[in-house]
Fold this sequence. Notes:
Blueprint: H1 2-34, H2 44-54, H3 59-84, H4 90-128, H5 131-137, H6 142-180, H7 185-195, H8 198-224, H9 230-263
Amino acid sequence: MEFFSQIGAGVTNGLAYIGSLASLGGRALYYGFAGPFQGKPPRLGSATSQAMEVGVRALPILSLITFFIGLILALQSANELAKLGAMNLVAKAVALSMTRELGPLITAIVVIGRSGSAFAAEIGTMKITEEIDALETMAISPIHFLVTPKFLAMIVMLPCLTIWANTMGILGGALFGVTQADFTFGRYIQTTIESLYLRDITSGLIKSVMFGATITAVGCLEGLSTGTGAEQVGRSTTRAVVMSILLVVVVDLVFTGVFFFTGNR
C-alpha cells in the first residue's frame, strides 16, 4: 500500500504543479492582453529588454549549434541514402527534420539554459531579499510587474529564433550538399523549398510558442516558490531547468501526436 500511496502522491503533486503553471500563465496572459483595456498596460519597456536578452543575445550560440546540427543531419542521412542511391533526398531530410522537430526543440533547450534558468534565479533572488513582498505591499502585482513582460518577450521571440534556427540548420546541410553531394547552392536551396509545405513550418512555429509559454511559466513559478536562503536560489534554478526540459519534451510529444493524426486524415 505504501508503494501505491507514493504513486498517488506523485500523480497528485504533478497535477497540482501543472495547475499552478496554468494559473500563472493565465494570469500573465490576462495582464498582457486584457489588462490594457482595464487601465493596466503591460510594461513594454521591460518586455523589450527581455526580448533583447532572450532573442538577440541568443543568436550567436543558437546559430553555431543549429548550423552544426544541420551538418550532422546531412552526414547521417547521406550515409544511409547513399546505399539506396538517393543522395538527392539529403536536402529534404534535413529540411523536414529541422522545421518539424529539431529547430523548435534545440531552440527551446538553448533558451532554457540561457533564459529559463535566469528567470528562476532573478525572481528567486528577489524573493529571498523580500523585494516581492515590497511589491505586494505597494499593491503592485508581481505577476503583472515581473512575469508578464517575460511572457510577452518569450512568446514573440521563440518563433523568431526558431525560424533563424531552421535557416541555419538548412545552411549547415547545404555545406555538406555542396561539398560532398554534388549539389550547387542554388539547387540545394530550390530542392529544400520544394520539399517543404506550409504545414511543416507552421507546426514548428506553433510548438515554439507553446515552448516559450512553458519555459517562462516554469522559470517564474520556481522563482516565486524559492525558499529562504541563498542555497534555495540554486535549487530553484536547477529545478527550473530540469522541469522545463521535461515539460518541453512532453509538450513536443503532444503536439507531434496531434499534427500526425490530423495530418493523416
